[in-house]
Amino acid sequence: MSSKEKIIKALSSTRSIGIPDDQVKPILRDLLKTYDGNWKLIEEDNYRTLVDAYFEHKENEELEGKRGGLMHDQNSPISLKRPREGEQQNQALPTIGSSSHKSVVREDKMSEVNAGQETTKSTQHGIVIRPSENLSSVKPISAIHPDKNAFTNGNMECNSYQTCSSSSQCARPLSTAPFQDQCSSYICKCSTSSDHVRPITRDQHNKRNKSHSLYHMYDLTKGAEKVKISWVNELGNESIPKFNYIPNNIIFQNANVSISMARISEDECCSSCSGDCLLSSYPCACARETGGDFAYTQEGLLKEEFLNQCMSMGCEPKKEHLFYCEDCPIERLKNDWKPERCKGHLLRKFIKECWSKCGCDMQCGNRVVQRGISCTLQVFFTREGKGWGLRTLNNLPKGSFVCEYVGEVLTNTELYDRNMQRTGNERHTYPVTLDADWGSEGVLEDDELLCLDATYYGNVARFINHRCSDANLIDIPVEVETPDHHYYHLAFFTSREVKALEELTWDYAIDFDDEDHPVKAFECCCGSGFCRDSKKKRKETLL
Predict the structure, then answer these.
(1) What is the pTM of this model?
(2) What does the pLDDT look like over 12-57, one tens digit per residue?
(3) Strand, coil or helix: what is 493?
(4) Where are the domains of the chain?
């Protein structure tokens, strides 16, 4: 690879995590001089040395600005010392997902995101969260809006930058100049902006920070997932709201979820299988739920036929796809004295994955959801007034598993009581009712009418925003550890190809005209041409 290509690749890596080219180029040039043109030390660990040097340079600028009103001089030596493992640093430099992308960040202290959760033992339910005496509550909205007090603040300058195109000044004929001179020349010509770090006054620095601050943390999950998930605010100094990250669902108190080997019969597992069930000559018992054929391809994607069937049922449900309760528990919670007629519950297709009683291993192609998140995700502050959102940093093909919706498992009564205690000023996520198979479950008791709430305990799915009808994610119920379909996992798959940096959205299936719902519908900001929020449309018409 030529030196020009190496420079462009380095700038592309730093640009992907929000560092402007004109600020990183002089740092790169100095590193090349320091290392006598040795790119290996710069490229290793996804350009960690380069980013280390950049952030240390920024810290020195801030210190100099406080002392003398001037930023650090460009020609001062750059420290190349790396933080040792276990040392407390103000920045973290991880690799997220693919080797071609690096999410590099300044790490602020997450004092409000608690590492532990208070639990009590329960022989019936496993992990149970003690009910809070002071459950705060919230005005329902389509997105998670920021909480200023959730984290301590740190800031860094983030100026606009220009990206080289094929017709820009990056193109350069072959040269016989020395290697270091070529590198300096390419760095200078890769952008029309200046390659010098100009000293500016403290007032100028503070003024820029107000409008171009970049708040970034490298791992929202705090090590709970096998991949790191960063969060970034490129528009201001707001931090993500307070919550506890959990990678798996946790029972709040009364939900009846019984997980045991004895409940799984021999014809509901594949104890005689080994290795990868998808490579067997014929499908095993775990494929019965999906019509005798597995839902996944060997590449880990949903089969297109199965995905299209799920999408069709959600977008254009037929009468046979809906189940109507004689005494709907949701309507009864709204008005116990005179409940309205059931509005219908969509009976959806399930995926059944292999589990612990099966003979296959964890790399079996029928264990996609339970292996957890594997794609590169980032929480970011949206520009459309939706608050926080979730996006992918890599291209995702159609049918890719993104994540599952994780939260507290509550009964409908517990959720109703929690909503009644909320003040209206607190921000929260939209809960999910686990009603995908109520029609075949018979009469369910209150402790079997379950839902998921990620307001206080949840995973990254709590940041996925709503979009009416044409969202790029679809939620599909997945059976893993129990055959009882009143509890299941809710997994998100891409409904089409999704490009890198595109926001991930899903349809909450909200009835915007339901005035009696305990969780009031928000004003939809999805921007879809199929938006169902008639109130907003009427308001826009009046304006």
Answers:
(1) 0.61
(2) 888 878 788 888 889 898 888 887 788 888 887 778 888 888 888 8
(3) strand
(4) 1-82+176-212, 119-148+242-542
